[in-house]
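2024-03-11 09:14:02 DEBUG pipeline.ingest accepted 1 chain
2024-03-11 09:14:02 DEBUG pipeline.ingest length=225
2024-03-11 09:14:03 DEBUG pipeline.predict start
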Amino acid sequence: MDYELMMNGNVKIGQKAPNFEALTTFGPINLETDYKGKWLVLFSHPGDFTPVCTTEMIAFTRAHTYFKELNTELLGLSIDSNASHLAWIYDIYRKTGIKISFPIIADRSGEIARKYGMISNDISNTKTVRNVFIIDDKGIIRTILVYPLDVGRFIPEIIRIVQALQIADCSNGLTAANWMPNQPVIIPPPQTFEALEERNAEIEKNRNGISWYLSFKEPPKECLP
């Protein structure tokens, strides 16, 4: 399996995130041990000292507090060297006063990037595209986003996805299109005809849906931020 991952970047939603050890701007890390019990946003960028990536690093840093409130850490990656990463984040600090508040992996061999499918050979054999992997507190990959080289990520949407995943887990519910925090969640559809009839009766009484396959509930208080 590891060979397949390394050759094809064949990671999928629902599988265990492949472990790795890496050198970062915060020192060496191990994915499994250093982020155990935490949610993680692992994201790649095409290269240091590039304009879109610089805006993303600043935006992620400004939003880091919001991620931390969700028990979520940030971890960047590119195949540039650690020295290049350090020079870049120092330049950002010198020009803006902003200290990048999360580690950036120096994946010089490209081993991690290829394992996670971060390199699109149709675009570049050396640059990582803008991947985002949301990994939950049990080490399972829950979301994969892929952006082209020329489009920056919208950080509030990444936060919203983490919030949606966490509220769905906690409430045993689903989130609707355009769901935002503190909105109701969808009740999973019934699996038997008897349960279908009960659900329709509940909808008729509470006016909380349109039919047996689409009804809503307020998430439990313990699930709310």
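2024-03-11 09:14:41 DEBUG pipeline.report The CA atoms of residues 46 and 119 lie 9 Å apart.
2024-03-11 09:14:41 DEBUG pipeline.predict end
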